[in-house]
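Case study.
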Amino acid sequence: MLLVNTIREKFEDAVIGLQKRNFPQAEETLKQVLELDNKRKEAQNERDNLQAESNSISKEIGMLMKSGKKEEAEKAKARTGEIKAQVKTLEEAYNQIEEELKHLLYSIPNIPHDSVPAGKSADDNIVMLENGNIPVLNDDKLPHWELIKKYDIIDFDLGVKITGAGFPVYKGKGARLQRALINFFLDEAVKNGYSEVQPPILVNEDSGYGTGQLPDKEGQMYEATADKLFLIPTAEVPITNLFRDVILQEQDFPIKNAGHTPCFRREAGSWGAHVRGLNRLHQFDKVEIVQISHPDKSYEALEDMSIYVQSLLQKLELPYRVLKLCGGDMGFTSALTYDMEVYSAAQERWLEVSSVSNFETYQANRLKLRYKSEDKKTNLAHTLNGSALALPRIVAAILENNQTAEGIKMPKVLVPYLGFDKI
RNA sequence: AGAGAGGUGUCCGAGUGGUUGAAGGAGCACGCCUGGAAAGCGUGUAUACCCGUGAGGGUAUCGAGGGUUCGAAUCCCUUCCUCUCUGCCA
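After joint prediction, the assembly is written out as follows.
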């Protein structure tokens, strides 16, 4: 969530930023935050002063008791009754204001970076660059949902039998392709200085709050209600939460973690014509990269991550483009997001396979993820993450783009992982 | 899952109702001492919020949340976690 101090000090910028996101009543809402915060301070002052008085009387009583002046102690006790009741009232008032403020802050998205264009939808995103050759396929080209049947490598019907729609079963070379991609992505990440982690894929509520899935977005996650745990929608949640309530030293930066996990998304109400086959699933695999960065270095880190993700796509020989998301299309917690899309040649459309974001202090504030600077001050760190990469659409593009009459050619870089070069 | 023990500051560890944000030790930082180092000595060493230009002051925090009390690290309740034994299990 946003820092109240930031809102106070950069009010105009914050309003303009939120307007870029089409956040309704930006100015009114931010004013309300400041008013509530002022009320909070007043309430705290009142409460603290009274509590201080009560504390000092209690100490007095303690001293009187020690020195055997029982009667005077009793007199002092009588005085405290009233104060106690008042403190309780003030305490409740304070808590209510604080709660209200917190809820309001939870409802406000991150302020976009200056360079983020205003815009309403994906149509307003900016194409930063396009790379790679779009293959020219014969007229008998097949979309991946046909190819997987033809070669019997991914079975949606079996998944329906076991679980339901959106839970495919990978078989034979399909399963091996999955495993090869995961290993390839992890190896590349390690080569690029990321340290590999294997986090839990069920997380508690605190973790959900830490990265911003909670409150309000619990509908997106599968929940194990008996234990109040959530199946992760992305490894961002457990990996970033590794650093919840942590105070780092400046020399700890940058922290670079990478991990593979399955991801689970309910995707309630988002089914339609464009989500056939592997395009949208309830369960899929993804390798995620996470960086914890010094605030001065986080945009460098973001560029770094973007270039790294692109290097994977180049090695997989997939045509891709990089988008800078507009305010209206960015995630709630992000300040700047690049989306990487690959071209899937049979569907003849671009598929998002990675989303790389800088959250600045928005997540760190919730996470209480801080660092001690040289001058011994504690400041919030910056968090970033990105997919590197999400498997299903990569698989879709590999299958579609490389189909030939003799079978589907595998990218060279995967062959050592696969043990075969063609499906 | 059952029985028992326990969760205190960066770490170890004392503390069972009264100026305890918390003894003592270790570590770390700075200073003194030294030719240099070690030892020794001294000082300092949490987080959040609030008040104050500042020095400084206030409030809260001893796993978390409630309660009893004028006063709680200390008593009570709930909850989470760790350890030991038993059970179960990949």
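Observations recorded in class. The longest helix of chain A spans residues 26-66. Chain A has two domains: 4-106, 122-418. We will return to this complex in the next lecture.
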